[in-house]
Design brief:
Blueprint: E1 11-13, E2 24-26, H1 38-41, E3 44-50, E4 64-72, E5 75-82, E6 97-100, H2 105-113, E7 141-145, E8 148-152, H3 154-160, H4 174-180, E9 189-192, E10 197-200, H5 202-208, E11 222-223, E12 231-236, E13 239-242, E14 245-246, E15 274-284, E16 294-297, E17 303-305, E18 317-320, E19 329-339, E20 350-353, E21 360-361, E22 371-372, E23 374-380, E24 383-386, E25 393-394
Antiparallel strand pairs: 1-6, 2-5, 3-4, 3-6, 4-5, 7-8, 9-10, 11-12, 12-13, 13-14, 15-19, 16-17, 16-18, 18-19, 19-24, 20-21, 20-23, 22-25, 23-24
Length: about 400
């Protein structure tokens, strides 16, 4: 609560007469600056009386207390009939009316409400703090609470801070001290040697477990993920079986034998911005390319962005599956399925090379000397089967 604004010798002459409903009061122009400004100093109450007929305001039967809520130079905005007084006319002929800022009952009551014996004690900005003397003992620690300061024992402080040994924190242990003293070396493994804890390198730890490079551990089978459906086992020399089904045996440089089985491929790549199928990775880009740029193999043996403006830039076509700069080897799809969640193809529609370098379109080009090159078909709004047709049609108007 803010106290009313005050100022010494604050008294001024009212410039004219007013009725009991007037709330905008004009003062004599040379008097108005004697009083506080409500916008910066706060509002205040003033008395208003007939000073010609009553030198003492208390003798005027029509004396009134009003509250000044705003002041613009010599014009006051007031609220009438304050502090149990009544609004009355101030228009007695030939009388001079004064307004004065003096001590009133409200000002005394406001001051009284701030006296020391009515202070509120709790933890808050500018408040006083008291000690709960019934809850304090020797060697206690002070704890702030909503009611003031409270005494807390050593045990209670540990509880308050969640530092109870055995509950919140580990008690001292010699073994933990041993571990803390071990060298923090990348790759070390902590093991017990029968007496203390020691740190061993990965190679030493593997030997300790019988899994060193000189060991030959044998396993009947290896369970991956779930014991009931993914078991790896040896079926014959050099032949690995998954769930009893032999895997094809092949070595680098030999043909892959599928034993009359097919290679199955899904038409839905597993993630956005991904292609699956026949992919080359060792040919470099001739310029900066990015997924899913349509590229062609230029006579310099590098991938460049395909452009349907000319047959020469639509020869051997591929689809870039990653971002690469010039002279960096790039992963390029020659045939297969591609997914880009930003696409919105018409399903089953043809997809053509575009006159925008590296671009794709479902609208065939129609400009003079443009090349119509079908590069695949949309299998879904965000997927296509990339299988460039080797036929090229040069458009002539």
């Amino acid at each position: 609560m803010a106290l009313d604004a005050t100022k010494n010798f604050a008294k001024w002459i009212v410039s004219t007469w007013y009725d009991e409903s007037a709330t905008s009061i004009v003062l004599s122009s040379w008097e108005w600056d004697k009083f506080p400004q409500p916008s910066t100093d706060w509002e205040f109450n003033i008395i208003w009386w007939d000073s010609t007929n009553y030198r003492d305001p208390s003798d005027d039967p029509n004396v009134e207390i009003v509250r000044c809520t705003a002041r613009s130079t010599d014009t006051l905005t007031v609220t009438r009939a304050q502090e149990w007084t009544s609004a009355s006319t101030k228009n007695t002929w030939s009388s001079t009316y004064l307004m004065a800022l003096v001590l009133t009952s409200k000002m005394i009551d406001d001051i009284d409400s701030w006296k020391q014996d009515t202070l509120t004690f709790w933890i808050a900005n500018t408040n006083a703090v008291k000690v709960d003397s019934a809850d304090v003992a020797d060697n206690d620690f002070a704890k702030f609470t909503a009611n003031g300061l409270e005494g807390r024992s050593y045990t209670e402080v540990k509880q308050d801070l969640d530092l109870e040994i055995g509950t919140d924190i580990q008690a001292y242990d010699a073994g933990l001290t041993d571990i803390a003293g071990l060298a923090v070396t990348d790759g070390n493994i902590i093991v017990g040697d029968g007496t203390n804890w020691v740190a061993e390198s990965g190679a030493t730890a593997r030997t300790s477990l019988g899994l060193g490079t000189g060991d030959s551990p044998q396993f009947t089978g290896i369970e991956l993920g779930h014991a009931s459906d993914t078991t790896l086992s040896r079926s014959a020399a050099g032949v690995l079986a998954v769930e009893g089904v032999n895997l094809a045996k092949s070595t680098m440089g030999e043909d892959l034998t599928t034993n009359n089985y097919n290679i199955l491929r899904k038409s839905i790549p597993s993630a956005d911005n991904r292609g699956e199928g026949d992919i080359v990775t060792d040919i470099v880009a001739g310029e900066t390319v990015a997924f899913p740029n349509l590229v062609y193999l230029k006579s310099d043996g590098k991938w460049w962005k395909a452009d349907a403006d000319a047959i020469a830039s639509c020869d051997l076509l591929g689809l870039a599956l990653e971002s690469k700069n010039a002279d960096e080897a790039c992963k390029v799809l020659l045939r297969g399925f591609v997914r880009d969640d930003d696409w919105n193809w018409t399903v089953a529609g043809k997809i053509y090379a575009s006159v925008t370098p590296g671009g794709l379109s479902q609208t065939a080009v129609s400009g003079e000397d443009d090349v119509v090159a079908i590069i695949g078909y949309a299998t879904h709004a965000d997927r296509l089967y990339f299988n460039p047709d080797n036929t090229r049609i040069e458009y002539k108007a």
